[in-house]
Design a protein that fits this description.
By secondary structure, the protein is mainly alpha-helical. The protein has a single domain, classed as Zincin-like (2-Layer Sandwich), CATH 3.30.2010. The protein contains 12 helices and 4 strands, in the order αααβαβββαααααααα. It has a 4-stranded mixed beta sheet, with helices on both faces. Helix 1 packs parallel to helix 7, helix 2 packs antiparallel against helix 7 and helix 7 runs antiparallel to helix 8. The protein starts with 12 loop residues before the first helix and ends with a helix. Its cofactor is Zn(2+). Pfam families: Peptidase_M48. GO terms for molecular function: metalloendopeptidase activity; zinc ion binding.
Length: about 300
């Protein structure tokens, strides 16, 4: 999982270290949580193992399809979107990386995201709202940012880390139901009662740990992607301009549309938040706009020297 191993995107040791740590802790939580459920709900253990293993494989293997469908993205051809494909072709040649599939979501919210378990299975998607609002060099900066996520392989780590919280809830409901059904009419009422108390508690702890880990990794990976994109294109000011424009325009999108998009904020170029929400986000998936612009300003000064 070495960062930027197969491309010319600047490697980021800080990102690699955080991804390895996140995966290690997530793995421990996953094994520990499943093990505890098996101990507490002995009658339901085959169901727990089957569901946890099956859901994990399905989520990892089909993450690109699941995310695309959830966000309403449709793959597009070079004939349909020549400028979009042309920009991605140039950036992939510059970065020496395989070209991902290209998709578009029809929505007024200006945004972009990347998904997929590896560079060969990746999809980069932009919204029609983004294409309509950005100048060519701004679009290039946003696409370079998304391609760096693919090259650094942090999309796969985010997919797995975010999935654990969802899995905790699903397994808990099914395991409790299965365990209690199997325990009916037996003399293990005290075990069933203990399970009913402990399993939801452990599930909440696992969800909270997964939530914190994904937030911490997500904020760092966005800064890493900004850095890598600015260094690859040599135009940090274009990316800064795109960031400012996109963040300002998102704040003006109707709150109902923003709420629909918010579950996927960790994957977006800029979070789907109103101006008030963005200011009060202590646990945001993204660093603040000020942080991102300040970093791009420093890179611009370095490139100038």
């Amino acid at each position: 999982m070495s960062s930027g191993q197969h491309s010319r995107f600047a490697p980021d040791r800080g990102l690699t270290g955080r991804m390895v740590t996140t995966m290690f802790v997530i793995g421990l939580l996953y094994v520990g949580f499943t093990g505890l459920l098996i101990v507490l709900l002995r009658g339901a253990w085959p169901l727990i193992v089957l569901i946890s293993g099956g859901l994990f494989v399905a989520q990892f293997w089909f993450s690109d399809k699941i995310t695309q469908r959830a966000m309403g993205a449709r793959e597009v051809t070079p004939e349909e979107y020549p400028q979009l494909h042309g920009t991605i072709d140039r950036l992939c040649a510059l970065a020496d990386m395989p070209k991902p599939r290209v998709a578009v979501t029809v929505t007024d919210m200006p945004n972009a995201f990347a998904t997929g378990r590896n560079p060969e299975r990746a999809v980069v998607c932009v919204t029609t709202g983004l294409l309509r609002r950005l100048e060519p060099e701004e679009l290039e900066g946003v696409l370079a940012h998304e391609l760096s996520h693919v090259a650094h392989r942090d999309v796969a780590v985010m997919t797995i880390a975010g999935f654990l919280g969802v899995l905790a809830g699903v397994i808990t409901r099914i395991a409790l139901y299965g365990g209690l059904m199997n325990g009916r009419g037996r003399s293990n009422d005290s075990n069933a009662a203990l399970a009913m108390i402990l399993v939801p508690l452990v599930s909440m702890v696992v969800y909270a740990a997964s939530f914190l880990l994904t937030r911490l990794l997500s904020r760092y990976r966005e800064l890493a992607a900004d850095r890598a994109a600015a260094q690859l294109t040599g135009r940090p000011s274009a990316l800064a301009s795109a960031l400012t424009k996109v963040t300002g325009q998102i704040a003006a999108i109707p709150s109902e549309d923003l709420r629909r998009a918010q579950p996927y904020n960790a994957f977006y170029f800029a979070p789907a938040l109103s101006a008030r929400e963005a200011a009060s986000q202590l646990m945001s998936t993204h660093p603040s706009l000020e942080q991102r612009l300040e970093q791009l300003g420093r890179i611009s000064a370095e490139l100038g020297r």
